[in-house]
Amino acid sequence: MKTTIELPDPLLAQARRFADAHGMTMKALIEQGLRKVMAEQQTSPPSSCAMAA
């Protein structure tokens, strides 16, 4: 599935550098990050950080 997300320019640049340095695609980085955050949310109480809907 394709989707569009808006990220701050500095965060996107940092993510691209990270992905390049680790030999991964942006798609793989974003997917891995989402899976990690969701797994952590299942094992710990909700944080005070609000997520945009």
In short:
This protein is an all-alpha fold. It has helices at residues 9-21, 26-43. The two termini are 19 Å apart.
How does this model look, in words?
The chain is mainly alpha-helical. It has two helices and no strands.
What's the layout of helices and strands?
Elements: H1 9-21, H2 26-43
Protein traits:
2 helices, 53 residues, mainly alpha
Element-level helix/strand string: HH
- Based on secondary structure, the structural category is mainly alpha
What fraction strand? under 5%
Number of strands: 0
Shape: globular
Assembly state (oligomeric): single chain
Gyration radius (Cα, Å) is 13 Å
Mean pLDDT over the residues: 89
Largest sheet: none
Terminal Cα span: 19 Å
Helical run tally: 2
Low-confidence stretches: none
Helical residues, percent: 55-70%
